[in-house]
Amino acid sequence: MIPPVLRQTLLAAAVLVSLQPGAALADRVTVFAAASMTNALQEIEQLFEADTGHDLVVSLAGSSALARQIQQGAPADVFISANSDWMDALESDGLIQPGTRVDLLGNRIVLVAHGSVAAPSDIGQISPELDLAALLDGGKLAMALIEAVPAGIYGKAALSRLGLWNSVAADVAQTDNVRAALALVATGEAPYGIVYATDAAADDAVAILGVFPEDSHPPVIYPAARIAGRAAQAPTDFMDFLRGPDARRVFEQQGFTVLDR
Q: Is 68 helix (H, G, I), strand (E, B) or coil?
């Protein structure tokens, strides 16, 4: 039996806690995001949790794998894809909360080399004149899955548009996501690779040799949206945070172009 005075004290304490900003709303937010956002989201996770009190859980992988997991019922609250097609697929399935989709970020596709590879220090903008097959010289070109993962799709599109794909297709080493392709180059298992500019900037073991022209591939756009049927407030808080000044600073420092204001 709790004495009346103690009962009143506990009740008062509970009321005070419930009145603390964000205390009653603190919740877990599960975010499925493209692997190329790894570094940015590691920093944003700390900032968001400190700002809101919510617990942010981030699952990073290729956008195709994440989208398929959501289609199969994985409990994601927010999805950030590295291209529009996979977000379109979820939207067509009725899995995106209407009115929450935004084009958040932009990026560039680049050709990178392992630091020890003897290669031109700066090709500049990649053109059809580049003899990429000769540059590979029997080595592998690391790319994310060319038929499913956005970085691989963009990379193949650029190589095809420039007339370079057929000469190197047999030498492509495909990986489940773009960070795995970056790792192949960083460790020297593949001398060259095609990744996002932000990935290349995140690893000192690789060097950017050249940038693919923007008109050689579809625009690299990262849409973000809430998943339909999930708890409203915490995911909404995270979507708002993604478009706020703290997240913007992180994204720009990582080399992304912020599209949504």
A: helix
pLDDT in tens, the chain (261 residues): 445 443 443 333 333 333 344 444 568 999 999 999 999 999 999 999 999 999 999 999 999 999 999 999 999 999 999 999 999 999 999 999 999 999 999 999 999 999 866 566 567 789 999 999 999 999 999 999 999 999 999 999 999 999 999 999 999 999 999 999 999 999 999 999 999 999 999 899 999 999 999 999 999 999 999 999 877 789 999 999 999 999 999 999 999 999 965
| Residue 192 in tokens | 């060259």
Q: Which residue has the tokens 């005075």?
A: 5
Where b means 16+ CB within 10 Å and e means fewer, 57-89 reads: ebebbbbbbbbbbbeeeeebbbbbbbbbbbbeb
Q: CA-CA-CA-CA torsion for 16, 18, 22, 28, nearest 10 degrees?
A: 140
